Amino acid sequence: MAYRSFQQFLDVLEQAGELKRVAIPVDTELLIAEWADREMKSPGGGKALLIEKPTVNGQPSPFPVAINTMGSHKRMAMSMGANSVEEVASELGSLMKAKPPTSLRETIKLLGQAMDLRHAKPKVVKGGPCKEVVLRMDESRKSKVESWPKAPSVSDPSTFDPRPC
Question: Which end of the chain is more exposed for a tag (fewer CB within 10 A), N or C?
């Protein structure tokens, strides 16, 4: 795993200029999805958005919303601690195409490649920052990002007006 936490990943995105913070209250019903859709359709996948004050049914939510964090090749590579997604694909491809070793030297080489990927396996832990504070909320206050059920698709982003409604 390239980062200790999602917060650390967001910090790296911000340092790289790949994150836009939205400090004003934003409604989780329709508006966040609309803004994210506009970013995703921007050249290169736009930026990741961190909505610091989402609102649910007009009430502020204590939980920020991060969206479009993996919406570009650059951010996907950053999430894996790599320079490019092609680098990761090449590394995985070499393991997929690996032939059974026929000598001790080939065995050691293949084991070295496998050890480089040991971070790819999920790690189960009993505690961590995500378990330090547990807040229980009634159903009416839970955040969920909603979009129009039949939102029109924009096939040509150059004709799309990015100004908020």
Answer: C
